[in-house]
UniProtKB/TrEMBL annotation, chain A:
Every B12-binding domain range: 106-249
Pfam families, per database record: B12-binding, OAM_dimer
Gene3D superfamilies, A to Z: Cobalamin-binding domain, D-lysine 5,6-aminomutase beta subunit KamE, N-terminal domain
Name under which the protein is recorded: Lysine 2,3-aminomutase
Signal sequence, start to end: none
UniProt xrefs under PROSITE patterns: B12_BINDING
Domain of life: Bacteria
Organism: Lentzea indica
UniProtKB/TrEMBL annotation, chain B:
Signal peptide boundaries: none
Record-annotated D-Lysine 5,6-aminomutase alpha subunit domain positions: 4-516
Protein name in the entry: Lysine 2,3-aminomutase
InterPro entries, per the entry: Cbl-dep_enz_cat (IPR016176), Lys-AminoMut_A (IPR015130), Lys-AminoMut_asu_sf (IPR037086)
Species of provenance: Lentzea indica
SUPFAM superfamilies found in the cross-reference section: Cobalamin (vitamin B12)-dependent enzymes
Domain of life according to the entry: Bacteria
Length: 250, 522
């Protein structure tokens, strides 16, 4: 793949055709007028021409639509900003040997779901030996000591445990996002660590399907991981961050 | 008809091992009470409402009374003796008056003796009997409505979830879901309610990813479903959750408001919510006794094992948990037709023959528990956000459900792990179910897995592994097995976990009229 392309549009079956597909529901009864309304919405969304290829009623008051059409918008790749992975991916063996060399002891990771969030799916996928996406979780790594506090851990409890365990890194997971709970909880957590431990605070890592890696600054954490992150990525990041901290060249 | 040719001797061994594993835990459950069991008893005796002036926000009156009794004379004898003695001594008409006086610091609780004891026992027994009578009346009313309106025309029953956080919105969604074909409506609870050591009061409108379970919310939703049941011409059932720190109380509220199904697992709270094991087993036993009296179908939570552990490697832990849940339920007086034992379609779709393995596991559950209304749970772990793929997976899930004769089918949503379902997502999901039922609803008639084929062999293998694991649990002790991380990979020692301080060893003279009435009925 060359990066010479700067402008792109969606690809249906021909380069540059701009074709996309979308579906939505409008709160109006099924019928020709509903189809016309869907057509109008699609046009306003930038689909032109738009084809309402399917519609059906949901109860008496709603209609569901599937629409295909071409969008006029262009994507300017120069304006796309994402967090590129800033560290090399390591195998579990490489993680273990590097940590042994850098720390000469086990790296301590404390993790949990904070706030009222009871969804341990995310933290368990990263920490439990079972792992995720075919990769074993952090518990599997010989040079990592993992303390999984599970669900609904209060922030003071998390700080206390991080202290007593002498945590190098604290991983928190947030799945529930209603009323921005994930953001508020994480900010509360990072503020508590700053207040309690200042510069001696552990590395703070937040993960969850609705986080954007660009939010690290806003959340007051060192790194944010989003949907689809594997344990190997987290382990590799921890190694990278420890090396940075110790001033050892990667 | 049996398709797996399971060896009846192996099946009998499995059940016997489950009974042996459970026995010491049942003894512990009988020897203890908990703050939640005592609160449930007072709720049966008629206490309602909350102290809205307390600085901690609305504290249910029942919590105020229980906490004060515990402080002043302990709960070893049960709450009813000191509570009803104080009621008589002060000439209060209701427990709520007693609670108000308790909150005002006007009551000194003590364990009555002699004539006072006899009088307190009598008063408590008659008050609790009224609560039990309400539960009995609700059960009769359910039977009457089912007789009049009818059960769903098909099996499996179609089970749909609503979860808006606002009971009024839930009503709109639930009624629409029933009109669109749902036979069972489950109102998901607010995240975090399982760890509250009290039941919130009143109608609620601000839950997180679900709606608080309260007596008033139960009443509102049951009334709304009664209305829509008449409209659609079948009895639409209502489900809520009796898991967490308030299992017994929520079970009582469900009985008082004619809920029809309750999530109630023997080990879920321990493993997935880190609730103290003893607390859970004591609470679970009482709550199941109440469910048995109310004719409520319990739904167990085996699907959860497969979301944390691998669905192929851990298949036998589901069977083991089903057998334990069955034993604990029977012991608490629940008959087979109220045992909605759970399992789930959670094998990684990339595993070769994953669908055949799913069929093997589902058939094994069906044949091990022929009279139980099994609850079949949709894929969640391998729903990736690719909604198109998810829709296909849900179709296969539905097919496995009808092919293996599952009883209650929780409708899978392609938005799993993405957002709470849109109106259209629910509609598409129901279309998926309807298509499969219509196209293949009777396919079980023609389905005969080859006697030496993968499905039959796999089912035998899983049952064998379940027996092996049960043997280890019997040797090790169930509480130790839980402490060692045998289930769902979580390690939960018996002396740790939330709610441990709410467990009380019963005194010789412990008295609880609810337990006596519920046990006598068995």
């Amino acid at each position: 793949m060359t990066d010479s392309k700067r402008y792109v549009r969606p690809y249906g079956d021909t380069t540059g055709d701009g074709m996309i597909q979308t579906s939505f529901t409008l709160p109006i009864p099924f019928g020709p007028k509903a189809d016309g309304a869907a057509q109008q919405l699609a046009n306003k969304m930038g689909m032109d021409p738009a084809m309402v290829v399917h519609s059906h009623p949901i109860g008496d008051d709603f209609t569901f639509f599937v629409v295909y059409g071409s969008v006029k918008h262009l994507v300017d790749l120069d304006e796309v900003k994402v967090v590129e992975r800033e560290y090399p991916l390591l195998s579990p063996a490489e993680v273990n040997t590097t940590l042994k060399k850098v720390l000469r002891r086990k790296l301590v990771v404390v993790g949990g779901c904070i706030g009222t969030d009871a969804h341990t799916v995310g933290i368990d996928a990263i920490l439990n030996i079972k792992g995720f996406a075919g990769e074993k979780g952090l518990e599997y790594y010989r040079e990592l000591k993992v303390v999984n506090l599970g669900a609904q851990v209060s922030v003071p409890e998390l700080v206390r445990r991080a202290r007593t365990e002498k945590a190098d890194a604290v991983l928190i997971s947030q799945v529930v996002t209603q009323r921005d709970a994930h953001i508020l909880n994480t900010q509360e957590m990072s503020a508590a660590f700053r207040e309690a431990m200042g510069d001696r605070r552990p590395l703070l890592v937040a993960g969850g399907p609705r986080f954007d890696p660009l939010m690290a600054g806003e959340l007051g954490v060192d790194r944010v991981f989003s949907r689809g992150t594997t344990p190997g990525e987290v382990a590799s990041y921890l190694v990278h961050a420890m090396q940075e901290k110790k001033g050892v060249a990667a | 008809m049996a398709l797996l040719d399971l060896d009846p001797k192996v099946v009998a061994t499995a059940r016997e091992l489950a009974a042996r594993a459970a026995e010491p835990v049942v003894s512990i459950a009988k020897a203890h009470t908990t703050v939640a069991v005592e609160r449930a008893t007072l709720r049966l005796a008629g206490i309602t409402g909350a102290d809205s002036t307390h600085r901690a926000g609305d504290v249910p009156w029942v919590n105020r009374v229980i906490d004060t009794v515990r402080e002043q004379c302990g709960l070893e004898h049960g709450v009813v003796l000191p509570a009803f003695h104080a009621l008589r001594e002060n000439n209060f008409g209701t427990l709520t008056e007693l609670a108000e006086a308790t909150a005002a610091g006007q009551i000194q609780f003590k364990i009555p003796t002699g004539k006072d004891l006899t009088a307190a026992r009598k008063a408590a027994t008659s008050a609790v009997a009224k609560g039990i009578k309400t539960i009995d009346r609700n059960r009769a009313q359910r039977d009457k409505l089912i007789h009049k309106l009818g059960d769903p025309a098909q099996r499996p029953w179609i089970y749909l979830i609503v979860a808006t956080g606002d009971i009024d919105e839930d009503v709109v969604q639930a009624q629409n879901a029933a009109r669109a074909g749902a036979d069972v409506i489950a109102v998901i609870r607010s995240t975090g309610q399982s760890l509250l050591d009290y039941v919130p009061e009143g109608a609620t409108h601000h839950g997180f990813a679900g709606t608080y379970a309260t007596q008033e919310n139960f009443r509102i939703m049951r009334a709304a479903l009664d209305d829509v049941s008449k409209e659609v011409g079948r009895y639409v059932r209502l489900t809520n959750y009796a898991s967490g720190l308030c299992m017994p109380e929520i079970a009582v509220l469900a009985g008082l408001q004619r809920l029809d199904m309750m999530l109630n697992d023997s080990m879920y709270g321990i493993l997935f919510r880190d609730i103290n094991p003893i607390r859970t087993f004591v609470d679970q036993r009482f709550s199941r006794q109440v469910h048995a009296r109310a004719g409520i179908i319990i739904n167990t939570g085996e699907d959860n094992y497969l979301t944390t552990a691998d669905a192929v490697d851990a298949a036998h832990t589901v069977t083991v948990s089903q057998l334990l849940n069955e034993h604990f339920a029977h012991e608490a007086g629940l008959p087979d037709h109220l045992l909605g034992l759970g399992h789930a379609f959670e094998i990684n779709p990339k595993v070769p023959d994953s669908f055949r393995l799913e069929l093997a596991h589902a058939l094994l559950a069906r044949e091990l528990f022929p009279d139980a209304p099994l609850k079949w749970m949709p894929p969640t772990k391998h729903m990736t956000g690719d909604v198109f793929n998810g829709y296909l997976l849900d179709g296969f899930f539905n097919l496995a459900g009808v092919l293996t004769g599952q009883s209650i089918l929780l409708v899978g949503m392609m938005t799993e792990a993405v957002v709470t379902p849109f109106l259209s997502d629910r509609d598409l999901a129901l279309q998926n179910v309807r298509y499969v039922l219509n196209a293949a609803g009777s396919l079980a008639e023609d389905f005969r897995p080859a006697p030496d084929g993968l499905i039959v062999k796999r089912a035998h293998q899983v049952l064998g592994e379940a027996v092996d694991l049960l043997e280890r649990i019997v040797d090790d002790g169930l509480l130790n097995a839980i402490a060692d991380g045998t289930f769902g990979l979580m390690k939960r020692p018996a002396d740790q976990g939330k709610g441990a301080d709410g467990v009380i060893t019963k005194a010789e003279a412990y008295f609880n009229p609810a337990s006596e009435m519920l046990e006598a009925a068995q």
